[in-house]
Specification:
single chain; alpha/beta; 5-stranded mixed β-sheet; 3-stranded antiparallel β-sheet; 12 helices; 12 strands; 45% helix; elongated
Length: 311
Amino acid sequence: MLLRQLEYLVALARERHFARAAAACFVSQPSLSAAIRRLEHELAVPIVRRGRRYEGLTPEGEVVLAWAHRILAERDALHQELSALRGGLTGTLRLGVVPTALPAASLLTTPFCERHTAARVSLASLSSADIHHGLAEFELDAAMTYLDDEDLRHVRRFPLYEERYVLLTPVDGPLAGATTARWARAADLPLCLLGPRMRNRRIIDECFAADGARANPSIESDSVAGLYAHLPAGRWSSVISHAWLHMFGVPEGMRVVPLEGPAHGPRVGLVVARHEPRSVLAQALLTVAREAGVRDALDALLNEHLGRARS
């Protein structure tokens, strides 16, 4: 049994299509199919349900796939440990990030790359469900996500910051001169918010509801970038997490106004799977995170923008 055969199986399970799996592995489809048939012959079990197209794995195939993930992870961990012993960490750190934490990711990835110059980072914007799957299937080394997610199991958590929510509103808007604003007042503004499928939006809706209000945004976006793209027009207001200021700042013609209510929202942090083998790259990222001071950096940035708004 060759490691390459296991890589082909993992790719096929991920892509759910022989041609796409072959393309992902940079081989021809007949070569990939033949390698998986050899694997079935060597293990003496059927692995793939075959029809006119890929129809999934057999029960035996699911067991083989789980072992394939573990074996390939062991191989990667071996390479990482040996590279560290040689004096420099190499390889690619696979980091999944929920979209609303993506603007703050560079506070970790930049110092990580500065410290480990021979290592690389592969950053993916993923839903919470995709992060759960990626960690469980050894497809991710670590993730930035909400730490109070009830579906997060068998992981180690490292808090980074608590979301703080502020209103971005045009400088000529009715709340631009306010020292603070109530959520109910913000709900009356022409709003641009993230869509209801986003975790951040559901949290914000709970904050509106706690003040007896309901937001009815004119524009909804499935990305922070899409939301920010509408703000320079000077018509829309938005409720944002203070972490987004790190990447996007305050658009020209807008002002930051603190919202009355909880001082801090849910915790965002790093998570790594508890299973063995442990990723050397993930451990290195955790070391960087302990020294990065992400919470203090984001709070200082928010205070800086609030100070400018008052002056």
